Amino acid sequence: MDNTMLIQVTNQKAIGLLHELEELHLIRVLKKNIAPIKTKLSDKYKGVFSKEDAKSFDEHTQTMRKEWNNT
Predict the structure, then answer these.
(1) Distances (CA, A) of 39 to 8, 30, 44
(2) Is residue 5 in a domain?
(3) What mean pLDDT is predicted for residues 12-30?
(4) Can you give the residue range of the structural domain that contains 21?
(5) Tally of structural domains, the chain
(6) Domain membership flag for residue 2
(7) What contacts 15, CB < 8 A, 6 or more positions away?
């Protein structure tokens, strides 16, 4: 059986439990302290909007900013 799961430990007590499970040969810890991959927003949303939609969104954003600054 080869089921691999990625988990995030939210409580330090869980690390002890994981080590105990590993000692009982119920699980195997493959990697420790893996940093999440940070993706730039520009890369994440590249190509999501058409040029027309992006231009419309930009114009709308500029209008909202002007309205916000006028209040």
Answers:
(1) 19, 24, 6
(2) no
(3) 92
(4) 12-33+43-70
(5) 1
(6) no
(7) 9
Confirm whether 7 is domain-assigned: no
CB 15 within 8 A of CB 9: yes
Instruction: Give the tokens for residue 30.
Output: 């493959």
Tokens 């493959």 belong to which residue? 30
The number of C-alpha atoms within 13 Å of 44 and in the hemisphere containing its C-beta is 5
Mean pLDDT of 21-33: 89
Please, are residues 29 and 18 in contact by the beta-carbon 8 Å criterion? yes
So what's the pLDDT on residue 1? 61
Note whether residue 38 is domain-resident: no
Could you report the per-residue pLDDT of 29-60, keeping only the tens digit for each? 887 777 777 888 888 888 888 889 989 999 99
